[in-house]
Amino acid sequence: MRKTVIALLFASTLPAVAMAMPEDGQHHRREHTPFEQLDLTKEQQSQMRKLMGEQMQTHREITQRYLDKLPKAERKAMQDELASSQAKTHKQMRDLLKPEQQKQFDEMHKKMEAKRAERAEFKQWKAERDQKS
């Protein structure tokens, strides 16, 4: 079951990663989002971001519901495996960069980790507050 859950999690992230990557060596024409080719208005862009955010949240909630059904040891093993895989990919990505790019990459990573920590702290505070109510 653990392998199935991991495979599902991995497979669900591939389309987003693939859509963000440039096609067939078109590195000179980098696109920030897959929707740039659609020439969306600002309102459409805003709505697209909102819908994508909602979809990501729903995906997390559904995934968490199934993860909660796993025994604690299985969840821990999965988290460890995912963390290891993420660290490996992070290192591979960093190794592709020039030294000055690595510095910028490291700064971006620090900022993301700080935001992630803030979000986790807020979720914990909110859960504790909700339990008191």
Short description:
Among the domains are: 49-96; 98-132. Helices cover 77% and strands 0% of the residues. It has four helices and no strands.
Mean pLDDT: 81
Distance between the termini: 36 Å
Helix content: over 70%
Poorly predicted ranges (pLDDT <50, ≥5 residues)? 14-29
Secondary structure: number of strands: 0
**Biggest pleated sheet:** none
Derived structural class: mainly alpha
Overall 3D shape? extended
Total count of helical runs of at least 4 residues:
4
Order of helices and strands: HHHH
Estimate the strand proportion: under 5%
Radius of gyration over C-alpha positions, nearest whole angstrom: 18 Å
Give your account of this protein's structure.
It contains 4 helices and no strands. With 133 residues, the protein is an all-alpha fold. Among the domains are: 49-96; 98-132. It is extended. It is found in: Periplasm.
Protein traits:
single chain, 133 residues, mainly alpha, 4 helices
Topology:
Layout: H1 2-20, H2 42-67, H3 72-95, H4 99-132
